[in-house]
Specification:
The chain is an alpha+beta fold and 438 residues long. The chain is built from 11 helices and 20 strands. It has a single domain, classed as Anthranilate synthase. Helix content is 31%, strand content 32%.
């Protein structure tokens, strides 16, 4: 086990320190910043965390990916941060990913950080590997000396960056018709069909873009990640899966409605979402899928639904979220919990394998990190992973920027409404990318 030294600093202004910490972390070749945005949630370890610089790492394609990750996680027995791309599905089932990939992210990447800093309430906890534990004070002073980053709330100008659609509107309706045909034939009950928005030969400022996106959305699973030329700028509202000791928590999202300025109208749209028959049926289908996935590794009779179709409100949208919990035996390896539930049902459909084959055939782009999972393991073998949605992916070397959105298609889907929902989900990402100040 790699031993870490812990040192705690008390903070006069945690929100200000958090801004400085993010800016300080950007200078390193490898950095992960996770931010809960102080969103009230039942399951949480910290307000935010910064992990920097590889001490060890694993980078691999999908082939035998879970066994490689299992070996790496067991060997380090330490904090590791990173991601599993959606295409690791090919390690779980006999599937393939042959669509266009403009980004070039590895299928799996995790790193053991030299330094980790957690903010909890008014404390900053520095967890450094022993080789670096003489740098606490120096780093703390360096963070305090950082100039804070500006706010974007009152600036409105647009730039000339042009976002293209990989699937145009008429083609989207044509493909949606094919999904509905599969549903009518009984091949599937539901499929999460996604489309890519992208821009080529562009330069963006990843940190500024992330800060702007996060200010617009303030989600509970925000992530800024950089590794060499690769960036993830995520405003994800969705938890994929979490492990706390023997307890497993999964919180799929299905059901979206826009926020309204008028409080009465906004409350009504949230009320209507909670009772929307189509949205509830989408959510319940995925809850059943998650229950089935968890039952493969859970103790008998331990899988239960803690919350069903509860509406939560975020800055941009209302979302319908369910919470499914289970318990596992001590003998179950943490990576096996992820293997048995990956990819998350909210991004695939039901039945899962049939849905994945159909969407692979109809989508034009390799999903890659989009609709995969980003998170961390603790030294105790616990973990917490988000779903990579509401996210911008950027390869600074290829000068390629991309974001994707999707929606659950069921027998009750109306193509025009599904298209409008995609545009609603794309709104924040498109806004920050077409924003002047690049």
């Amino acid at each position: 086990m790699f031993l870490r030294t812990k040192h705690t600093f008390f903070l006069e202004n945690p929100a200000d320190f958090k801004q400085r910490l993010l800016k300080w972390g950007e200078q390193f070749e490898t950095a992960t910043f996770l931010d809960s945005n102080n969103y009230h949630q039942q399951y949480s370890n910290f307000d935010c965390a910064l992990a920097i610089e590889e001490f060890t790492s694993i980078k691999t394609d999908h082939f035998d990916a879970f066994e490689k990750l299992k070996e790496y996680q067991s060997y380090t027995n330490d904090y590791i941060f990173g991601y599993l791309s959606y295409d690791v599905k090919n390690d779980v089932e006999r599937l393939s990913s042959n669509n266009f990939d403009g980004l070039g992210f590895p299928d799996v990447y995790f790193f053991q950080p030299q330094k980790i800093i957690f903010i909890k309430d008014n404390k900053a906890e520095f967890h450094y590997l022993r080789a670096f534990d003489d740098e606490f004070e120096e780093d703390f002073e360096s963070i305090l000396a950082i100039t804070t980053v500006k706010s974007y709330s009152e600036e409105t100008e647009n730039s000339t960056l042009k976002i293209k659609l990989r699937i145009h509107k008429d083609e989207y309706f044509n493909k949606l018709g094919k999904v509905l045909s599969h549903i009518q034939r009984g091949d599937i009950y539901e499929a999460n069909f996604c489309q890519e928005f992208y821009a080529e030969n562009v330069h963006i400022n990843p940190l500024d873009t992330y800060i702007h996106l996060n200010e617009i959305s303030e989600p509970p699973f925000a992530t800024f990640f950089k590794h060499e030329e690769l960036y993830l700028l995520s405003a994800s509202p969705e938890r994929y899966i979490r492990k706390e000791g023997a307890k497993i928590i999964s919180q799929p999202i299905k059901g979206t409605a826009k926020r309204l300025v008028n409080t009465i109208d906004d409350n009504k749209i949230a009320f209507d979402l909670a009772r929307d028959e189509k949205e509830r049926s989408e959510n319940v289908m995925i809850v059943d899928l998650v229950r089935n996935d968890l039952s493969r590794i859970a103790k008998k009779t331990s899988v239960r639904v803690e919350e069903l179709c509860k509406v939560y409100s975020f800055k941009q949208v209302h979302q319908m979220i369910s919470t499914i919990i289970a318990e596992v035996e001590d003998t179950v390896h943490p990576v096996d919990v992820i293997r048995e539930t990956f990819p998350m049902g909210s991004m695939t459909g039901a039945p899962k394998v049939s849905a994945m084959k159909i969407i692979e055939d109809l989508e034009e782009t390799k999903r890659g990190l989009y609709s995969g999972a980003f998170g961390y393991f603790t030294p105790e073998g616990d973990f917490d992973f988000n779903v990579v949605i509401r996210s911008i992916l950027y390869n600074s070397e290829k000068k390629y920027v991309s974001f994707s959105v999707g929606g659950a298609i069921t027998a009750k889907s109306v193509p025009e409404k599904e298209y409008e929902e995609c545009l609603l989900k794309a709104k924040a990402m498109k806004h920050v990318l077409t924003y002047k100040n690049r």
